[in-house]
């Protein structure tokens, strides 16, 4: 193995996707694998291929740059790109048959202008804000967006493929906003119908709703974190059928004996209690290891769970392994599926005060991804 690496299990991504696509299929819904942010840190192209092999019919990304990376790799599945702001050149995406999510009249008009210049029909998914308070037209602004879309459809410059929205609290089953957002979404679909906008594909569900809310599956579910084997909320949304795809590991760079009372790492926030062995692990916040995990992050080394001694630095941190026989080159596992007793991304999220999404997504470009499985 390399000095440090994120091992990505493509069989796990494929199997997780197959499981989620099975849930969606029970509601006659298709499955979009969300591979934004470099596939939540797992690598967009390999993750996309594994998800397609597992039965995803669509891919979802934020930016057109992310969509074009998939097209350049030769992936020809339907792709939706949903976060392109004013002035973004969406022309290359339109030419590459990438669908665009549009939340406002202005962005709809920019998509149409690009489509006209490319002599293509823009494939649009109109986004309604059903309560998240993020992107999407408010119910008050929704009719204007529909009027503009219907006009473009009549002119042949755009085709409304989808109408969609996004949940705020689907990871808290029973949260009252869930039913409220569903009701607003259904109403928005009726309003669209009255404006002559008849989308083929209505979509609302993220991972949490895919796992817990069949009535929100509509025609397509957008599964992100779950295809990588993580639960959107481990405390409330059990996802035992899923297998975490990423294992982050590194080799001990130096192991050395030090006396009692030795300060460790910047600020000397940790001191050795007795003569002991310190093991240096070459991963730090420059690689996405949260500095908030200083004196807290769990690591498996030499068959035991250890806790980071002192501060996480930019490129490295230290473990105090006592008198255990640890040598240079030994493998330290920060997180993985848990099979070997290693911590999970969920545990790292807990100690760093964040969510598993952020733990895997922020693993930096300096850490090579190595792929196992088909
Ligand atoms: C990121 C994202 C998703 C996927 O969410 P998960 O919770 O990871 O499943 C779905 N839809 C939109 C609009 C997103 O931004």
TrEMBL record:
Catalyzes the interconversion of L-alanine and D-alanine. May also act on other amino acids. Keywords: Isomerase, Pyridoxal phosphate. The keyword Isomerase applies. It comes from the Bacteria. PROSITE patterns: ALANINE_RACEMASE. Pathway: Amino-acid biosynthesis; D-alanine biosynthesis; D-alanine from L-alanine: step 1/1. This is Alanine racemase. It is an enzyme of class 5 (isomerase). The active site is at residues 36, 266. Belongs to the alanine racemase family. Its EC number is 5.1.1.1. GO terms for biological process: D-alanine biosynthetic process; peptidoglycan biosynthetic process. Substrate binds at residues 134, 314. One of its GO terms (molecular function) is alanine racemase activity. Pfam families: Ala_racemase_C, Ala_racemase_N. Residues 245-372 form the Alanine racemase C-terminal domain. Gene3D superfamilies: Alanine racemase (3.20.20.10), Lyase, Ornithine Decarboxylase, Chain A, domain 1 (2.40.37.10). It catalyses: L-alanine = D-alanine. The modification N6-(pyridoxal phosphate)lysine is found at residue 36. One of its GO terms (cellular component) is cytosol. Its cofactor is pyridoxal 5'-phosphate. InterPro entries: Ala_racemase, Ala_racemase/Decarboxylase_C, Ala_racemase_C, Ala_racemase_N, Ala_racemase_pyridoxalP-BS, PLP-binding_barrel.
